Inverse folding.
């Protein structure tokens, strides 16, 4: 154990607070961890992932530092459309207007894909609402006509 490498973060904690007798100071280093034990290496990887995401949204969407987190909190930590997805497993996507580049909010991947498929058409969603409220099969069973599209494109 004498020649075994020790976690630099644990040793720093022990040097700062020697009276605590930090038990992690004797934890072995994980390979390719930058001299950290498994616990500190996981924390470092998480920190790096979050920093990389922050830089990516700043570069891609022109958000200021911390603006993604502010928007996430403002939306109550949920997708702005479905209000089910929390972004805990997979981060919420930054939704933006392709014409102006203006960021609108954060959406889960399925909602963002749906919005993209609809090409931001409000008429598409009105047709979806009409379809759900009065489906063609129900009209057929009742002998009512089907005018084709419920609502014309705008």
């Amino acid at each position: 154990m004498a020649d075994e490498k020790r976690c630099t973060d644990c040793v720093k904690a022990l040097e700062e607070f020697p009276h605590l007798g930090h038990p992690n100071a004797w934890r072995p280093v994980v390979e390719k961890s930058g001299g950290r034990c498994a616990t500190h290496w996981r924390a470092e990887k998480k920190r790096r992932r979050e920093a990389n995401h922050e830089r990516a949204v700043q570069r891609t969407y022109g958000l200021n530092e911390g603006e993604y987190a502010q928007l996430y909190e403002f939306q109550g930590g949920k997708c702005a459309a479905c209000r089910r997805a929390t972004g805990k497993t997979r981060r919420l996507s930054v939704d933006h207007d392709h014409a102006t580049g203006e960021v609108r909010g954060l959406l889960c991947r399925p909602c963002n894909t749906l919005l993209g498929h609809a090409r931001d058409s409000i008429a598409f969603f009105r047709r979806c609402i009409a379809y759900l409220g009065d489906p063609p099969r129900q009209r057929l069973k009742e002998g009512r006509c089907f005018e084709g599209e419920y609502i014309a494109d705008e």
Remarks:
- The longest helix spans residues 38-61.
